[in-house]
Amino acid sequence: MEYFLYAVFALLLLAVAAFITAEIKSCRGNAEGEKDFLLILGCRVRGDEAEETLRMRAVKAAEYMREHPHTVAIACGGIVHEDQNISEAQAIEEILISEGTEKERIIREDKSTTTVENFKNAKKIIGDPEGQRIALLSSDFHLMRAKLIAKKAGLDCQTVSAPSPKKEKAKNYVREFFAFVIFIIGGK
After folding, report:
1. What are phi and psi of 121, to 5 degrees?
2. What is the pTM of this model?
3. C-alpha dihedral over 159, 22, 146, 50, to 10 degrees?
């Protein structure tokens, strides 16, 4: 029994290592050229403040918006936790504006509470995605699963990778591994 547990643990470690390797390869982003829409995926907000991961996403989005003056941002994310006073979308919008993005170029999608809902609701805003040039922006550790979820929602997206806090990288990759497994098994 003891060897069986060691074998299961070793297989789990190998699976996590393989996932992290694949995630690192996909985390560079591949968006090229002008896009019609940039979907910015939300992340944790406490009170009225974006946590560091969301702040890094929004700052990267503002950089993208400066380089692509015809792109419209869709800031995604509702109120997910009880300690939030503002939606993830509002936090993203506030950072984008503070970084120089014009308010007219930002659409808030502030109803979603999961990545799956982000894409379903963003698709309603976009309308028929056929012929639309769409990029999604998320953290490096989240891009692989986000791209799969977008595809399942009927959105063909290129990706823009935002950095994530170094102190949280290991935790985020392990957490994302389990989220990825759950998505593959259950589609959520």
Report:
1. -75, -40
2. 0.85
3. -80
